[in-house]
Amino acid sequence: MTMAKDQKKQPRPKAETPKGFRDYFGADVTERKAMLDRIAEIYHRHGFDPLETSAVETVEALGKFLPDVDRPNAGVFAWQEEAVPGGGSGDWLALRYDLTAPLARVAAQFRNDLPSPYRRYAMGPVWRNEKPGPGRFRQFYQCDADTVGSASVAADAEICGMLADALEAVGIARGDYIVRINNRKVLNGVLEAAEVREDQAEDVLRQIDKFDKVGREGVLALLTEGRKDDSGAFIDGVGLSEAQAAPVLAFLTSKGDSNSETLDNLRAAVGGSGIGAEGVEELAQIAGMLAAMGVGEDRAVIDPSIVRGLGYYTGPVFEAELTFEILDEKGRKRQFGSVAGGGRYDGLVERFTGQKVPATGVSIGVDRLLAALRAKGLAGAEDRGPVVVTVMDRDRMADYQAMAADLRAAGIRAEVYLGNPKNFGNQLKYADKRSAPVAIIQGGDEAARGVVQVKDLVLGARIARDASHEEWKSQPAQTEVARADLVAEVRRILG
Amino acid sequence: MTMAKDQKKQPRPKAETPKGFRDYFGADVTERKAMLDRIAEIYHRHGFDPLETSAVETVEALGKFLPDVDRPNAGVFAWQEEAVPGGGSGDWLALRYDLTAPLARVAAQFRNDLPSPYRRYAMGPVWRNEKPGPGRFRQFYQCDADTVGSASVAADAEICGMLADALEAVGIARGDYIVRINNRKVLNGVLEAAEVREDQAEDVLRQIDKFDKVGREGVLALLTEGRKDDSGAFIDGVGLSEAQAAPVLAFLTSKGDSNSETLDNLRAAVGGSGIGAEGVEELAQIAGMLAAMGVGEDRAVIDPSIVRGLGYYTGPVFEAELTFEILDEKGRKRQFGSVAGGGRYDGLVERFTGQKVPATGVSIGVDRLLAALRAKGLAGAEDRGPVVVTVMDRDRMADYQAMAADLRAAGIRAEVYLGNPKNFGNQLKYADKRSAPVAIIQGGDEAARGVVQVKDLVLGARIARDASHEEWKSQPAQTEVARADLVAEVRRILG
């Protein structure tokens, strides 16, 4: 009682989702779940085991290193534990910012118990303490698959093939996607062949990352003397000679009509570099294994123009793109673009144990892939609401409940109207809001005669839109059937 | 490069799950998911829509009121947002501690968009900032279903029936569970009939909560003059007269052999109290509706001895108990006990809008129900690992990948060994750790002859355990088949 009084004095709390967060309703939840279930099925069939780590990690275990180079200011949501009495200050805890850092912690913590190599997949929310903005959320889903403890590029090939399978499993048709594969070692070989100094390497990486945007000539200028950008500002070049830039450009443009042609071009580009030759040989092995797995070059292909992530990964890198066109916000056609990326990285477990453990993995952009499925009409969740049993006589709720129970026992989604039944129009408005395909009506008269009215709301809406007044008055969308035939009639309408 | 050097100077981070948190591996994830999927299917069929709110709420929206009376010190994990430049201090945010508080926020925030009544279910982790202890975790799953905006006890009846259906859907046999239903209004009527003063009501509630433990005589003593507890300490009584205590005890022990007998007993216990009569009538309606829905008294029953939660809820309360026996940690038989509870509550949305919105709901204890399924051997996830294709010749990885791909194309879970293949014994140890049912072996000799060795690891393990040395040497668990027959042979062994 005192509590209620206290609360009255305080202003009411605002009912708002915190800034940068969002809630998912109905089909938002089921469509994503259906997609992730199909992906999980493919991962499982490839021998990957699910792992669900706690959402919370110690800040110490997370480290301060966020992998996304395009989100340099990304931070974490962190707080300090209460001090332990007599035990000094409390640990700092934080929400995970991705699924890889927790995998690193788990791989180190349970290294004596886990199989090695350890294949795992993980799906779940991650949190970023960023300034919220349009389309930029502070909680979002990730869906990762990684193999920890295998140095073999067979692990990379497997993940590329699995990614192609996963995209088809969720409904993306063959020909509407492509997995592109590149290798950081080839780039390292090219830099060696070009005699790029170690202190220039990072600059070179930054410039070739613009290949998509500025093209061959643009990158050539940026690697050598610099260029003016669109705004007219002059961008300094790295200062390579044209002769030095040549192998880098040869690398970026070495994609041929087949993997074998591309590999030949790459062999030329790396010249006499040992690491370069190793990198090309790895790509050749991946190409061979994909072919053996029945994954053709129309599904996964060697493509050295893929440079995103080359700075972060240490060996093969991969990216899945959807190649069909959609209309962007301005109504222009454009390719849908990247929905997944990954590659090989070392040092995952090293932070914890001092031992290098090779690992490779891929992360699917859950929201982007779901958006793609929606754009293609493939999200596939049922958007039909339940059959609504209306309430004409509130004393006979048990009868209405029995009708809904009969429908459910036949596998039909059904519910009784639970609001105030006084206004029947409100009940039909409710059925409309629920996207109900059918409404059931039984007043006292019908009950006495042992019948129910079954209203086909889909047909009814069409008639209301298209039919003449005469047709409408004949109420073809409403049928009277015996109570015992209720389930059969609803089933007939649902088809 | 500088980063690596800096890191070397720092001590290595500890690879540890934060205290009170845990990680879920393999079957832990899939078994829980399979259970929740089956529950969601039942909820969906009853017209409930999924809702997934953000894990983070403003502290203001959460409020400071935790519903679990047995966890009075429960707190939240909270942190303050960075100050907005020129805009004062940042909001306090926190992880949700249950799924009801976010529902309240959503029901208020989206009240103009949501159907009314709004049936929703939610499944996901919640967080409690508590002192970790044995079996007490700071992140755990909840699974809730609630109907917001219906004052009708039809909503309560529906949830009780749905709960019974959900328990059967996950595998609990009829007869192994019971949903018990009580009503706070009946208790209020009893208190009125007993002329308990308002300032005594809370004390009375606290004492009847001990009914399970101390029984009829114990509660009688506690309601009147007090009693000695097991340790010999004297517990003060509430100070009622025996005449006043009588209706309370009549209420607690009014369960008869049938709902109709129980309802008669309750009518007597509430005497002339209006609120009490209303409460009994509500229970009678619920009983009637459950019968109409085909939910017999062997599945859901009126039981006034259920007092847990009576202090929190405002109308009907329900609790699902598993009635089969398990062995506790000390090897003693005991009933499994409660796995779900809920009831009717007001004031859900009122904090935000000032308007009372009636609501009723149930929460399933996900970990407890899963533990029950495991105890009965019903958790049902496949514990068979993948077929492991071993690597005899590392230059022929593509061949091994092709074998795994063939198996997967036939729907069989399969993987290639991706560790260092030098030591074949390690590969078989790996297959064992993976619980692989079958290993595939193909050396150069077999490859030349176009055959593979298919090793039945389950049969092999049985032979190694039971068979004579001679039998063992004949290797009945290993078959040589043509490469083209690989899939058929594996399928035969998997049965």
Task: Please explain how this structure is put together.
- The structure is a homodimer of 495-residue chains.
- Chain A is of the alpha+beta class.
- Chain A folds into two domains: 27-375, BirA Bifunctional Protein, domain 2; 387-494, Anticodon-binding domain (Rossmann fold), CATH 3.40.50.800.
- Chain A has helices spanning 2-9, 27-45, 59-62, 100-109, 153-169, 184-193, 198-208, 211-223, 242-252, 259-270, 274-292, 350-353, 366-375, 397-409, 424-433, 444-449, 457-466, 469-473, 486-494, and strands at 24-25, 49-52, 56-58, 78-80, 92-95, 118-127, 139-148, 177-183, 226-228, 234-236, 300-302, 316-327, 333-345, 359-365, 387-389, 414-416, 438-441, 451-456, 478-482.
- In chain A, strand 15 (387-389), helix 14 (397-409) and strand 16 form a beta-alpha-beta unit.
- The two termini of chain A are 55 Å apart.
- At the A-B interface, strand 1, helix 2, strand 2, strand 3 and helix 4 of A face strand 1, helix 2, strand 2, strand 3 and helix 4 of B.
Measured by residues with Cβ under 8 Å of the partner chain's Cβ, the largest interface is: A-B, 104 and 104 residues
Q: Regions of chain A with pLDDT < 50 over 5+ consecutive residues?
A: 1-8, 65-73
Quote the beta fraction of chain A.
15-25%
- How many extended strands of chain A? 19
What is the CATH H-level superfamily of the largest domain in chain A? Bira Bifunctional Protein, Domain 2
Oligomeric description of these chains: homodimer
Strand order of the largest sheet of chain A: 2-6-7-14-13-12-8-11
Distance between the termini of chain A: 55 Å
- What is the second-level CATH architecture of the largest domain in chain A? 2-Layer Sandwich
CATH-defined topology of the largest domain in chain A? BirA Bifunctional Protein, domain 2
Q: What top-tier CATH class of the largest domain in chain A fits best? A: Alpha Beta
Mean pLDDT of chain A: 90
Largest sheet of chain A: 8 strands, mixed
Structural class of chain A comes to: alpha+beta
The total of helices of chain A stands at 19
Tell me the helix content of chain A.
Answer: 40-55%
How many structural domains are formed by the residues of chain A? Answer: 2
Radius of gyration of chain A: 30 Å
Shape of chain A: elongated
